[in-house]
Structure formats: C-alpha cells, structure tokens
Specification:
CATH topology: Ubiquitin-like (UB roll)
CATH architecture: Roll
Largest sheet: 4 strands, mixed
Mean pLDDT: 95
Shape: elongated
Structural class: alpha+beta
Number of strands: 4
Order of helices and strands: EEEHE
Number of domains: 1
C-alpha cells in the first residue's frame, strides 16, 4: 500500500494509538496497522478502527481520566 500523505511504501506493523475525548485520554498499544516506512504515519483497517473506537468509548463511559490498554482482537 502507498502512503496517502507522502507516497512512501507501508508495511504491516504495530502502532500506538492515542485518542482524546473531553477529559479522557486513551492510549492503546500494539494496534495492528500499515505503517509508512518514509513518514511513519499509520493506517488502520475498518475492523481495527471499530475495535479501537469501542475500547475508547468504554473508557469514556466509565469515567477514566487516562486509560492505557494493550490491543487484543
């Protein structure tokens, strides 16, 4: 896959995704992603994105200020 930002080649790897919503910060480590070898930008599949957003929403609902998670499908 080509990076849509710089045109570099991407490779399968793991990313650290950080999401902010209101007063909640969610950090998810080990997220499977296509990572650009040139600029380092990462791209998530639709399935992985849905999982990441669901976990972030769970953290917001339970009132977490900071939540650090390891990705597991």
């Amino acid at each position: 896959m080509k990076c849509i930002l710089c045109g570099g080649e991407t490779r399968l790897g793991e990313a650290i995704v950080t999401l902010n919503r209101g007063e909640t910060v969610v950090i998810i480590k080990g997220v499977p992603a296509q990572i650009c070898e040139n600029c380092g930008e990462y791209f998530l599949s639709e399935e992985v994105t849905a999982i990441v957003l669901d976990r972030a929403e769970q953290a917001v609902v339970k009132g977490a200020e900071v939540e650090i998670l390891r990705f597991a499908a």
